[in-house]
Batch of 2 targets.
Target 1
Amino acid sequence: MKRKKITIVTAVLLLMVSAGIYFYYGIVFKEARNIASEAPDFSITAKKLFEDYNADPKKSDSVYLNKTIEITGKVTKETDSVIILENTIFCLFKEKLKVKMMNNKTTIKGKCIGYDELFMEVKIDQCTVK
């Protein structure tokens, strides 16, 4: 009887440890999204995206947050790895930009990470130029 209890407790502990290891490696080391290869969920102008966020940030988050979107607009500022469209959409790139696009209309694809109320900008991450 005592030996049977020890066997059951050992089996349950092994099962719990196995589940923990599976969870740790399955969730923690999950492969990151490749935004560049994803089809966009939305194609929108920079002005429209900013208007949506400016009107109702919570509603816009429910629509755009963590979604792959394509934004078209005029480049109003650029640095090595950042482009700002229409003074309102902050686009962060993984790598330094090689081409200057200042004052040109362009389309950027990236993941929306939300609205920055302090700077009044919509933040887009993992951007690529279309």
Target 2
Amino acid sequence: MSFQRDDLKRKLQQGRNVYGTCITVNAPRWPELVAGTALDFVFIDTEHIPLERMELAHMCRTYQAYGLTPIVRILQPDPYRAGQVIDDGAIGVIAPYLEQPEQIRELVGAIKYRPLKGERLDAVLHGSATLPAEMQTYLERHNFGNLVIANVESVPALERLDELLTVDGLDGVFIGPHDLSISMGIPEQYDHPDFVAAVKTIIQKARKHTLGVGIHFSETPQRQIDWVKEGVNIVIHSSDMSLFKQRLLTDIGAIRAASGDGGNGSQSNDPVNEVI
């Protein structure tokens, strides 16, 4: 399967929709199975999922080999960790709970200017120095296709949205619905008018700045369909764990009913169905 490092970036720059899911399972055949579902990318979340660095590197490289772009969410807005997961095979990096333009600027430096670091990088990012043409060409080639995606999931981020979205080098926005609803004081009320208005504002402003924008839900596809109609073009639907549970509940329920046992058995409210 052919694969170009800038596949996802080109699609986003063209305003096209891209499709992915959250991957939590590191099993040998999993990438092959996922690759057969016509996705563009996989979202690997190291903020909430316990993955060691070696595991992550194997997952990123394997999904690349199957033609899928690995996007990794790091634990915190740490430019050193961002550069590390790029070294491990990630092509896109999502940093959580970003509230300051400087946080995004540092991530851009780590992801799009690596291996340049220190005072020289800081001067370039703040416009007080420029790079020689040869160095600029080298860095663009070295970091070809890399994506910087900001998690917007708090009221302070909403209040500074225009500042955040205009940081040079930002490629997209990932709305964290659960944390955003918590920050707004309306926990998990995803149909609340204030929550809906906030998400619409983020979508509209992101697309105005020609940035990709996505939101993650592990419920039915209808929420994703509704938000795509509002302008979402990074579709991050559900996760392998959630889809497994949902399908198994349906199938076992049908078998139990046909066998005369009735009901769907125990249906716990575990975190597998949460949005992240």
